[in-house]
Amino acid sequence: MELTFETIIFYALAIFISVFSVMTVCTRHIVRSATYLLFVLFGTAGIYFLLGYTFLGSVQIMVYAGGIVVLYVFSILLTSGDGDRAEKLKRSKLIAGLGATIGGAAIVLFITLTHKFTTITDPEPIETNIKTIGHALLGSDKYGYVLPFEAVSILLLACIVGGLLIARKR
Amino acid sequence: MEYYLIVSAIMFFAGIYGFFTRRNTLAILISIELILNATDINFAVFNRFLFPTGLEGHFFALFSIAISAAETAVAIAIMINIYRNIRNIQVKNLNEMKW
Fold first, then answer.
1. Which of A65, A85, B7, B79 is the least buried, fewest Cβ under 10 Å from its Cβ?
2. B68 at the A interface (CB within 8 A)?
3. What is the pLDDT, as a whole number, of residue A82?
4. Do A94 and B9 touch (CB under 8 A)?
5. What's residue A25's pLDDT?
6. A29: pLDDT strictly greater than 80
7. Given CB atoms, is B57 within the 8 Å cutoff of chain A?
8. pLDDT band at A158; cut points 50, 70, 90
9. Long-range contacts of B79-88 (CB under 8 A, 24+ apart)
């Protein structure tokens, strides 16, 4: 793997994402955890930009970083009481969780690294045209996605109604 | 390509670890977000490196983002309701489903 510009960018993003995703689950304060989650989501958007999916990256930034993390921070500040620090677990449970995690990660990494993917050797990241995305998203032919699009819209409507119904004052 | 998959595997198992070891429901939800995000990276990477002419993984990642946003909204509504009832959102205090 020669050292091109994209390779350097990818390594920087990879280290950034790995460090912050581990720090997200290891920190004690939950507000810091949400902040590190925001950094992880920005790194993921950077990976999408690096792959050439500019639309997906901007959706990631707008929906996740603009919507979900703000929602998290609001709800953390609403519900933070005396118990907002993570309490000490029992050592046996901690070891069990860590063992399951490391075992699963070892299996997944082993399978990933030993499997031969029939990959295209050097795909240049072509930016997908926004017109192509729009025609595919709202097309009703064989490769059209209008049915899941409408299903997601109904799901979002149900989610709005359900959220209001659950969180309303009685 | 394998390097992208290694990154998403690290993110995924960080989420799994947080899901197992945290005792705050919001922290568990943050771990679920990490897991979903790792699967989104996998969709985009498989689409780019194995089928670069198609757009299937791209749309799967897009719909996955929308569904995780809906899931987060409903889950946070539930947690605010729980906090309003028992003034706490730790898992060990949630021992009944009806008030």
1. A85
2. yes
3. 57
4. no
5. 87
6. yes
7. no
8. very high
9. B79/A75, B79/A79, B79/B25, B79/B26, B79/B29, B80/A75, B80/A78, B80/A79, B80/A167, B81/A166, B81/A167, B82/B25, B83/A78, B83/A79, B87/A81, B88/A81, B88/A83
Torsion-angle region of B51 (φ positive above 0: left; ψ -120 to 50: alpha; else: beta): beta
B43 touches chain A (CB under 8 A): no
Question: Which tokens in the block code for residue B89?
Answer: 């959102």
Please state, for a pLDDT cut of 70, what percent of chain B lies above it: 97
Nearest-CA distance A148 → chain B (Å): 8
Strands (E), A44-109: none
pTM: 0.87
Query: Which of A61-65, A67-71, B25-29, B93-97 shows the lowest mean pLDDT across its residues?
Result: B93-97
Q: Which residues of A70-106 are buried (b: 16+ CB within 10 A; e: fewer)?
A: ebbeebbeebbeebbebeeeeeeeeeebeeebeeebe
Residue B90: beta bridge partners? B24
Higher pLDDT, B30 or A121: B30
Cβ atoms < 10 Å from Cβ of B98: 3
Contacts of B69 in chain A (CB under 8 A): 63-64, 67-68, 156
Q: Are B61 and B40 a contacting pair, CB within 8 Å?
A: yes
* Chain A CB contacts of B24 below 8 Å: 30, 83-84, 86
Query: Is the CB of B72 less than 8 angstroms away from the CB of A71?
Result: yes
Question: What does R_g of chain B's alpha carbons equal in angstroms?
Answer: 17
